[in-house]
Amino acid sequence: MRRTSALILIGNEILSGRTRDDNIQFLALRLGELGIPLVEIRVIPDIRATIINTVTELRARFDEVFTTGGIGPTHDDITSPCVAEAFGVPWEIHAPTFAVLQERFGPENFNTARQRMAKLPKGATPIANPVSIAPGFSIGNVHVLAGVPRIMRAMFEELAPTLQKGAPVFSRTWHTTLLGEGALADGLEAIQERFTDLDIGSYPFHREGGHGVALVAKGQDKQRVNDAAQAIHDLLKEKGGSPVEGEPPV
Amino acid sequence: MRRTSALILIGNEILSGRTRDDNIQFLALRLGELGIPLVEIRVIPDIRATIINTVTELRARFDEVFTTGGIGPTHDDITSPCVAEAFGVPWEIHAPTFAVLQERFGPENFNTARQRMAKLPKGATPIANPVSIAPGFSIGNVHVLAGVPRIMRAMFEELAPTLQKGAPVFSRTWHTTLLGEGALADGLEAIQERFTDLDIGSYPFHREGGHGVALVAKGQDKQRVNDAAQAIHDLLKEKGGSPVEGEPPV
Fold first, then answer.
1. Domain with B234 in it: what CATH number?
2. Lesser CB count within 10 Å: N end or C end of chain A?
């Protein structure tokens, strides 16, 4: 079964260049393994209407939607109330989360700002946060995770067993130096036409150790991926390359 | 003057996790310096309808749109014809580019696949590629760049002097260890309410050297940014932090 997912990174720090993203690749790889490959990613600022519209659009188009960022206690952490609004449900205190956070901070330090982290859209299921307690949550097909990579990853692994898996994606790669994409393009297009059920990708690389190209066959039918990989290997040989299995060394 | 930009990363390699993005932060920082800050980023697969729809939507919403990826010679390089279609113009041989590429490859190696790299949307202006010759291009407010980071950066610097600049964005940051966001949230919200023309951001960090928070004031009026930075400093002192100017050490 083919399942799809989308990812929304919420916050200004990637858009301004303050922070280099460290969440996309982890989620892309893990979702590929679970058979729910990422099909679209958006990076948006913490503007109320933008968050609501983006969540509303993507949750209708994809099987699962993941968000990162904007679930802390500060004024710019507005992901949770915006998701509530996208689902048309109240944003309210989640009693078990309130109790856990109050215990953690102590009643005297559990101020209004921190109490915000105990509010969830009505009907949401918390996603445990083993690092810093304040949970993420799932509502419908939308999964709201922290933006700090270490916390995001821990939350994702809490969530993963509950996700409905799709057929896993298989992938095989050959690379060669010295040959360029231009010499391979016609042969590669012919392979793509033979294997319309697969993605045949071509990725040039420019490294200290030499220029070349990596060719990737990817899809949900392992035998077809193997057959396409053989065809890629044969094309590289035919054009005078020295095919080596796998990605080029970094 | 406030100007805005959007970025579209085209290709499957970021979505599948094969490649970690190395273009967003560079463009985010450079566009901030030019006063054309990034307001939205999309990562999309090389699917014709998706590229056309995304370019069409974003070029209407933002002053400038940048794309990376999908301009090589292979079957999955479809950015250029899709941009032509988004603008409703033919995709045709650009004679000066054809001549330069033919010279570079030699007539005997200048095959059909490589000739595709000499095709541009009618009316587009090439963006020189000092690394590997095949150009990017601008048409209207859409700027089409290579996906390989080294080539993308070179193309961007060719393009930058031709872009209409906006007011540059100023930014000042204080960080402290030991204090968390929860203790600062109310005071920070009050600062945001005093400085509605600025973005006041709060970014927790979790490092070997300790946990803490970085607070950023950002906007186009330098004096206002300085005043907000002073207010942030005073808040950190008041709450018992040890404010240090700048980002926390990595």
1. 3.30.70.600
2. C
Which chain B residue has its CA at the smallest distance from A12's CA?
Answer: B201
| A250 located within any domain | no
Of the ranges A49-53, A154-158, A205-209, B64-68, which one carries the lowest mean pLDDT score? Answer: A205-209
- A63/A145 same-domain check: yes
Name residues of chain B where pLDDT drops below 70: 1
Provide, as residue numbers in chain B, all residues whose Cβ is less than 8 Å from the Cβ of A133.
Answer: none
B211: nearest CA partner in chain A: A132
Domain co-membership, B33 together with B109: yes
Cβ neighbours of A18 in B, within 8 Å: 171, 201, 203, 216, 247
Residues A158 and A190 reside in one and the same domain: no
- Residues A165 and A159: their CA atoms lie apart, in Å, by 12
Co-location of A120 and A29 in the same domain: yes
User: Which pLDDT score is estimated for B98?
Assistant: 96
Q: Are B99 and B83 in contact (CB under 8 A)?
A: no
Question: What value does the mean pLDDT take over residues A53-71?
Answer: 97
Q: Which residue of B has its CA nearest to A10?
A: B40
pLDDT (0 to 100) of residue A16: 93
- Name which of B24, B109, B188 is nearest A21 (Cβ-Cβ): B24
Contact between B41 and A39 using a beta-carbon 8 Å cutoff: no
Q: Is residue B250 part of a domain?
A: no
Angle (CA) B8 B9 B12, round 5°: 140
Place of tokens 């603008």: B87
Q: Is A220 exposed, middle or buried (0-12, 13-18, 19+ CB in 10 A)?
A: middle
Task: Supply the range of the domain harboring residue B14.
Answer: 5-162
For position B208, what pLDDT does the model report?
Answer: 73
Rounded to two decimals, the ipTM of the complex is 0.93
